[in-house]
Each structure stands twice: as structure tokens, then as C-alpha cells.
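Listing S7. Sequence submitted for prediction.
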Amino acid sequence: MGVLNVLCLRFKAADLPIGSWLPVARLAGVLILAQLVEAAPVRVLVYSQAGVQPVSRYLFGKFTEHLGRNVYLGAWAQLVENPEFAPATVWPDQQALTRRLQEASERFRLTELVEDARHHVPAFWQASDGLRVRWLEASRRYVAEVTAIEEGALLTGIYPPLHRTRRLELTVRARAATPTRLTAQLASLEGTVLGALQVPVSSRWTNWTGVLEVHEPSAVRGRPYWFKLSFPSGSQVELDSVCLFPADHVDGWESEVVDYLRRARLPMLRFPGGNFASGYHWADGVGPWYERPVLPNPAWPEVEWNHVGTGEWLRLCELIGAQPLICVNAGNGTAEEAGRWVSYCNSPATVGEGRVRASHGHPEPYRVRYWEVGNELWGDWQIGHTDGLGYAHRYRQFADAMLRVDPELLLIANGQARELRGPKIIDLTPGWNEILVRQNGRRVRSLSVHTLEGGGARQATDPVEVWKELVAFADAYLEYLDSLVVRPMQSAGLIPKVAVTEMQIFTNRPELPNNKTIAEALWLASLIHQAIRGGGLVELITHSALMNHGGGLAKDRGVVYAEPVWWTTHLYASQEGLYPQPVRVEGSPVFSTKGTYLVQRDTVPWVDAAALASAHGRTLTVFILNRHPMEPMQCELIMNGFSATQASATTLAASSLLERNRWDDPERIRPMPTTWRLVSPDRLQNMLPPLSLTRVVCQLTQPR
């Protein structure tokens, strides 16, 4: 039976008594049902309401951490894997290092990388036969001493963004036994030299900077190259560091990353961790970069160069107009150390650590308002983890020390951990929140929550069933926060306040909904909608994460691109609306979950919506989600108390739950303009694709 015949049956059946056309409907099956659904569109009703409190723009923030390639070889534009010539022994996980060296050996055709790293050549550098290399250590830094028995070179593999710029900014810190000249080169993996630069080296430590002009006739995205330092025969040189940036970097940051953040108007950025924060000492990351120590990352299997510290992060926030949220080290750090960090950021140039900041070139205080006291200190994976009573005591010490320096700080305390694993709710730290607020009273202004869900579904085989439970969890999020935060704070006489400082789907399985796919984009939007409905309970969300960790932006093989969830951040953060308007969704298909992986819940709607009016009253922004993995839905948007002259719409959609972007296909999922039919000044219509987020911006006839 063809589609045309089915359509005819549908219209003829409408003229028949129900009993007579029911057998025909059974025969026609799904196609007739689909037509019937189309005949009854989902209705999204928005109601005008004045006098409401605005939501915080900080609901649309991001989190970043010194983890993997989130910072180095990620948002930070420097291209060399080991710019400080650290030996392999510095890496805290030797097996992980060997795997990375093997991968780099294959990618860059540097066959001796693994063996050289075992014989005193700095990791990720390969030495030619004419060089004798050893490493020296001094003041928690490393130096590669290179003696050229005959002319030779050190090579490392890089991914320069030559599709963007053909100029590379080189800084070499070195000294020589007798003055000499090195040659810096960019070469193809076939050995063709594409650019060269002479680097003078004196007998004293000197930072030399120059621009390497690259003559590459066909710059292809994602193409690997060699960066070479050549040494003349008989020379002896000590190399402290070699940094190579694309010349279009913005104060050290990737220019494309800065552009993405600016266009999204990212409102808040949390740093430096994460687990990293519990072992990070801020004083290691300030001052001249060539004096900062090179250390094993305290939380992750890599090295911390300390090229990015307080000044660099706060400069990024200045560049993009974001409010910083600093997470202090309450793991193996001290309250006094945290107080000095506050002073470094906020004290005048004549007071305390403000003098040190001024000596580093920033006399004006940064005036950082938001500070989080520790990260996940209830977890046994965390440096300095403790129990509820231990943290309550520690929080008091830290809060007092920090507020003594700056009484206007807005502190966030570590909230309790709770895991949802099917029908079981596991409190990892029973009574944590109750003890904390009882012991500290009004010192506790806000409690952090880390919403990292899906770990209990890692053995699942059906991605749709896992997706349903993730959506059901989002639907129940305010109830979840009520038991976790609201009741304990209210019982202590406090006004409940939640800071969601980490959030992502945590299945970590490519065959299930995960943080790289469209699922993360729609899940984050669902949780933002709950926060909008929460009446100010949720003061901020810093979604995980900025780059190459969790979901956000990505850089692979030198190609910067947006993962699907980044576009959720962009669509919400870049619009004007802040005043929530009541919304009701009618006619959405619903589903139920058994609670096998996350939560049991009945009648969860596939369609969800939220509406925000602008402060000046001239625009209304409506966000509509169709979370169904397969079915498009006809939608009618009805605005009660609003009158629109025109509307523009943008839709983010994918063809499957597991669809994602990649470096060689970076725009597979991206926002696309869509046309909604303005039936009347208060009514619009269009189709919602499956797995989609649509933003409709209505221009109103007069300010509300």
C-alpha cells in the first residue's frame, strides 16, 4: 500500500464511524498513526507575566581543568608537546606516557621517540645520531644539555594551524658554552623544509623571540609536521624551553577559541579544576613563565607546565567578558594559602599579595567575586578527601581566612555526593550537607552539586533506553535538588542556593549517549530549563567542560571545532532574554522509565519548552526541545499576552543519538536557520525534528 493510498484512507476514514474504520487503521499501521499525530500538533503555550525575577546568566557557564588537552594543546595555543624539555621520569604514569609516545611515533613518523625517552632525551623529542643529550634539573625546572658531536637536530611533531596562519611565533630560552646559532625549521614528514629561522644563542640565559614564516603551498587541515632545532657541529647548548605559537594567538589563547567564547557571550568560567584543584598551589602559576616550576600533574597522568596560571585564566575572562569562578585547593592546600590567593586577585597594589600581582604587571585588582572551597572532597579519589565533619571544620577555616581578606566574596561550599544507580540512591557521604550547614550556619551561602550521570548505565546495550532515563532524570531534577540541598539548608534556617559546578553525561561509552553527541546538547538544555523553573534556586551552572574534556569545544590535529553541546551553550548565552515566562506544553507524547539505570518515572514528555523575555520587553525567546529519538512533531507556539511582528528561528538537530562532530567533519551538527510560519501575531507553526533544540526569537510589537 503506497503512501498516497494511506493518505486517502485517512481522509476517508474520518467520515466513517469509529467501529468501521478501526480495522483499516490496523491494516495501514504506523503510517496512519503518524498522520493522526500530525493532525494534532504539540502546543507550546507561553503566558505573559510581569514582575518576575530574572534568571542568572551564569546558568550558561563552562568549567575547565588542567586535564588532558583541555588547556595545553587545547585552548592554550602553544604547539609543542614538551616545551620545557622535561624528561620522561616527570610523567606520573609511565604506562600512559609510553602509549602516548607510541601514538606520536606513528602519527609523526618519529620511530625513535620511545627509545630516546628511555635514554635521557626529553620526552616527545627525537635526537639525530650526531647529538649527545642529557637533562639537568634545577629549581624544579629542567634543562636539555645538547652537545653536537656533528651537525644534528632535535625533532618533535606538531599540528600548526596553517589553514589559518602561515606565521609561527617562536620563543627560545637558551644559553651556549660559546655563542652560536641554531636553526629552527618547519618541515613536512617527508623532510621538505617549509620555513627556517636563525636563532642566536649567547653565553647567558636569554629569551629570544622571532617569527617563522611558513611557505606551504597547500595547507591542509589536520596535516602533521616536524618542528626541528638544528645544532652546528661542535656546539654545546643548554635549552630551557621552546614555545611555538600560531602568530594569531590572543595573549597565548587560541584565536578561534576566543572567537567562539566571545560570540557565545560566555558568562562564567570555572577553573583550574576539578580534581586538579585539590593538589594545585596557585603560587606555582604566577610570575615570569620561565621561573615557574615544571611538575607532575597532581591529579592526572601528565605534566603541568604552569604556563597557564591565575593571570592567564583571568586574562581570558577579561578577553571574553566572563565572570571567573576560582576553585581553591582545600585538599592539600591551607586556609592561609587560599587567603593569599584572594589577596593576589583582589587586594590593592599596596596591600599583601596585591603587591606581588602588581610586580607581575597587573596593578589593578581582578575583583574575583565567586570562589569555591574545594572540589569533591567527599571522594576517595580526591587529594585530601575527608568526611562530613572534617570538611565542615575545614570549610570554616577557609571561609574565615578568605572573607577576612575580602568580605564581599561569594563562597560556594562542597555539597554532598549522591549517585543514582537504577532503583538505588547511593549517598556516598551520608549527612554531609546536614553536618556542613549545622556546623557553619550562615557561612554557607551556596552548596555545589556535581551532576555527572550515567555511570550506572555503562553495561547497557540499548542507547534509547539509557536516553530515556537521562531525560527522566532531567525531568525530575528539581525534586532531586530538593532532597539533596533545599531541605538541609532550610532545616538550618538558610535560604537554599545551588551552584552546579560540574555537569555532563558520564557514560563514557561511544555506543551509548555520551558527552560528545547530540544527547549532551539536549540533556544540558533540559537541565537549564529546570533551573529556569527553579525560581532562583540554581544560581549557576558551569557545564563540563571548555575543551577536549567532557563536551564543549574541541581541538584535534590543530583543527578547532564545536561539539554539539557547545551550540546549546551558545544558543542560550547569546540571546537577550532573562525574565522567565510561564510555559505549558500540551499534547506531547510521553514515556515511562523502569529505573534500571537512573530513575523510575512515569509520563515524561518528549517535548519540553522554556521562555525568556528581554529586560527591555521587545523580544521573547522560546526554547523548544523534541527529545524523541525518531519522531518529528508538528508544533504550534501560542503566545498569550504577546504580539509578534516577526520571528527568527534556529534549530540544532541530529539524525541519531550517537551522532557527533569530528575534526574532519566539524560541522555535521550545527545550528541552522529555520522558518516558523507566523499564522497570527500570537501564533507560530513549524515541525520539530527529532533530537532537536529550537530557539525562536520573537520581535514584539511593543515593550511589555
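Caption to Listing S7: primary sequence and predicted C-alpha cells for the chain studied. DSSP finds 16 helices and 37 strands in the chain. The radius of gyration is 28 Å.
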